[in-house]
Amino acid sequence: MGHLNNRRVLLAVCGGIAAYKSAELVRRLQDLGAEVRVLMTRGAQEFITPLTLQALSGHAVHHSLLDEEAERGMGHIELARWADLLLIAPTTADALARLVAGRADDLLGAVALATPAPKLLAPAMNQQMWKDPATQGNVTTLENRGIHFVGPAAGEQACGDVGPGRMEEPEFIARAAAALFATGLLAGQQVLITAGPTREPLDPVRYISNHSSGRMGYALAQAAVDAGARVTLVSGPVTLTAPERVTVRPVTTAQEMLDACLEHSKTTDIFISCAAVADYRPIEIASQKIKKHDAELSLSLVRNPDILATVSRSTPRPYCVGFAAETQDLRDHALGKLQSKNLDMIVGNDVSDPRIGFNSDENAALLLWADGERAVERCSKHTLAQIIVEEIARRRTS
Length: 398
Ligand code: C5P
Description:
Layout: E1 8-13, H1 19-31, E2 35-40, H2 50-57, H3 68-74, H4 76-82, E3 85-91, H5 93-101, H6 107-114, E4 119-123, H7 127-131, H8 133-144, E5 148-149, E6 153-156, E7 162-166, H9 170-181, E8 190-195, E9 200-203, E10 206-208, H10 215-226, E11 230-235, E12 246-250, H11 254-265, E13 270-273, E14 280-282, E15 301-303, H12 307-312, E16 319-326, H13 330-340, E17 345-350, E18 362-369, E19 372-380, H14 381-397
Parallel strand pairs: 1-2, 1-3, 3-4, 4-5, 8-11, 8-13, 11-12, 13-16, 16-17
Antiparallel strand pairs: 6-7, 9-10, 14-15, 17-18, 18-19
The structure holds cytidine-5'-monophosphate (C5P).
């Protein structure tokens, strides 16, 4: 069964009688591991109170586009970037029409336009409204834009009619949401991922390291597992819990990371090098704690092996993806590394912006390969990971 571990679901509730089921939907999404925030349209608040959904989700409900207070807390663009999935349940006939038109005069419309996350709609309306050619045309248009639908179910309706138009049951919707992340794009593939920093010891109590949190690499491991891959995660020291069904090889130093990678790289189909490997390590590790005698202390360092370049030059060679964290001239530097490290794809990210990259939950990136590129606007690391996995699957088969 699919799950929503580490997924951020933005549940948008529209104004229909089925809105009473949205309260239970929050719970069912949480049961599958999701973090849920709720957005309500004005109409939705006529059917169910924000307080109910606030209590269940544990967060203030978002309902206004032009509310200064709310925009200061988490504005509509922040909310759009926060989401890994925009789930609209219930979706009314009016909401469908507004999405088709790309209206941005309320919070839902603006967030729907601004989010790079996938969208899942659970329609609910009178059966005649559902069957109307205007509504059916809107559904087709949205499906053609890659928007997903769950339901509606057929049966007795609140208005007394019988037919298609009932919102699907919350449990069913939650499962459909989880299934969206389980793509099968890498079914049966062996994927090796490095994540986190390395630590290079100076003496028994000190080390050289960096600020990498490992979140991007762990998100990639989750996305690869969701895509059906068997995943080995070679992880430097981080405080994260590995996703289920991922085999973790904990390592500390760059040399240990290289050894672990070479052990697996011959049998791997795809290698994603996300770790922030320390470029240098102390030539010698002092056997006792280094004492502070002088005003200055010089350390002699030696270059660490380049793990990614080593794997990409080995035979058999997996499909190799690198990361380039840059503070300037992102495209040029990333392209240089694509060539010099003999890679199939590189994910460049601008780490000069403190809102993205190291130690942040969000990222933005420029994906580059030999004859193309794709820019990904700021979004959650889980959404970016999913996009990277999709592009890897697409490039490998094209
Ligand atoms: O050269 P630079 O460190 O910017 O290259 C970044 C890419 O190379 C990342 O994918 C990183 O994981 C990988 N790398 C490596 N071994 C090193 C240094 C970087 O695998 N010693």
